[in-house]
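Running this now, will post back.
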Amino acid sequence: MSQNQGKFVWYELMTSDIAAAERFYKSVVGWTAKDAGMPDMTYTIFSMGEKMVAGLMTTPEEASGMPPAWIGYIYADDVDATARDVATKGGRVYRQPDDIPGIGRFAVVADPHGAAFCLFNSSGEGQPDGDQMAPGRIGWHELMAGDLDSAWSFYSSLFGWEKDQALDMGEMGIYQLFKIDGQTCGGMMTKPKDMPAPPYWAYYFNVEGIDAAVERVNAGGGKVVMGPMEVPGGAWIINGVDPQGAHFALVAPKR
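Update: finished.
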């Protein structure tokens, strides 16, 4: 088993207007952006300093009709075998395993309740993990699950994730923290019944101060739909939608 098995290793925004999305996230999160130089498509790399963080691309034709959205890539030592396991465990394979020349192998899948993610295996060594909570990195991974218990069974059996604290959220139910390779990096809960969106993964981008980030969201044409809200541990979060309609989230150590 590799040291990356089961870890989130990449994040990607598929959207309807990559130029506008680039301007928005450069302003809000502080990323820099450059073209990846792919010969047959336009693909933009978001970075924070020397660290490549995420990718940006136009929604492909085969996914036409899908609204703009962020998706996360989870490392699998064997993409083909893991994709088969996804299907066996009740999930769905949207795109069968395929190669990205010179980069690695991937597949697009979803859990049994429809929350989408990608499987990925690199043909190289990849980047070092670095500090999960550094500005511009992804500090938290959150699943609004169709059902917490069955979702936990699916992901833990697929990737070997381990339970951390279970937080009682009262009427909202249990928020289960999880660890990947011993590091707490996310949480999941049953999606509230009044939430109109289907089950989904949310990714929290680190910023230095939440109030200043909210001002940048509003100035850039985005919309804050939840927060600012303080969470256990003293951090502050918001959930929002960007100008093209993709859901995103921010986390900061202070207001």
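The chain has a mean pLDDT of 94. More later if anyone needs it.
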